[in-house]
């Protein structure tokens, strides 16, 4: 699955405001004596994680940017390598095939808005790879499956349930985690031998451009999953575009016990 650079640019500010800085403080304390840092960003998109995190970690850093989309990788490499004291390189391919050996030279593994696209087995394998390589993992903005509109209305639950079911769909034989990703990630890392901390990282929107674009996709996916909602969708979309919205996410920091 690939994402348009325009969508990633639209959400970057909301992502930056939502991510947990408290977990970054723990990361910085954990890696305090390591310089330079090598950071692997999985599903990097246009490099928004690097732009958000590099300055908060400080020091000299080398980012290894992983994605399946060469267009996004080119944008990410240009943006991240332009940061002060930061160099970057890219890796194109399937990140679900990464092993402990691939991560062995890393000080930190990161991702943003990725885990819902994995399966249970892929999540377990990624956790094992991080723990066996003794590499902390900071995984941000995993969808939690919960939306709050103000004002609320009865149809909210029906569209939310349909969207969540769509997120859990089977794609090419792969059953996606969707909103089950935060719990699955925590369980996988604990089972692999890591300590885990989580933090809430909600988007907060108020009838802005991001909300309007996000709602199109959210309502569209719900209708695709539950066609019976189609008749209600146009007016529901209009009303929800005028409400404020909170889209809940979860950030997770896993630190292998060996670290």
UniProtKB/TrEMBL annotation:
InterPro entries: Methyltransf_25 (IPR041698), SAM-dependent_MTases_sf (IPR029063). Keywords: Methyltransferase, Transferase. Its EC number is 2.1.-.-. GO terms for molecular function: methyltransferase activity. One of its GO terms (biological process) is methylation. Residues 41-127 form the Methyltransferase domain. This is Class I SAM-dependent methyltransferase. It comes from Lentzea rhizosphaerae.
């Amino acid at each position: 699955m690939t994402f348009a650079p325009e969508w990633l640019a639209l959400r970057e500010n909301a992502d930056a405001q939502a991510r947990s800085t408290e977990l970054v403080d723990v990361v910085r304390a954990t890696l305090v004596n390591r310089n330079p840092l090598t950071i692997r960003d999985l599903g990097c998109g246009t490099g928004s994680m690097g732009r958000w995190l590099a300055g908060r970690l400080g020091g000299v850093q080398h980012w290894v940017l992983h994605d399946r989309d060469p267009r996004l990788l080119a944008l990410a490499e240009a943006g991240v390598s332009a940061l002060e004291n930061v160099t970057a390189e890219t890796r194109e391919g399937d990140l679900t095939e990464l092993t402990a050996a691939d991560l062995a030279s890393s000080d930190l593994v990161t991702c943003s808005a990725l885990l819902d696209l994995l399966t249970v087995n892929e999540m377990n394998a990624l956790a094992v790879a991080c723990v066996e390589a003794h590499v902390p993992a900071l995984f941000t903005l995993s969808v939690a499956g919960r939306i709050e509109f103000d004002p609320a209305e009865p149809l909210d639950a029906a569209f939310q349930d349909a969207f969540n079911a769509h997120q859990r769909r089977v794609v090419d034989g792969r059953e996606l985690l969707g909103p089950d990703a935060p719990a699955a990630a925590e369980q996988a890392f604990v089972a692999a031998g890591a300590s885990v901390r989580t933090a809430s990282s909600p988007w907060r929107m108020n009838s802005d451009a991001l909300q309007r674009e996000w709602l199109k996709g959210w309502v569209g996916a719900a209708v695709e999953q539950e066609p019976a909602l189609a008749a209600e969708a146009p007016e529901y979309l209009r009303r929800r575009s005028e409400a404020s919205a909170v889209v809940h996410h979860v950030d997770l920091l896993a630190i292998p016990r060996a670290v």
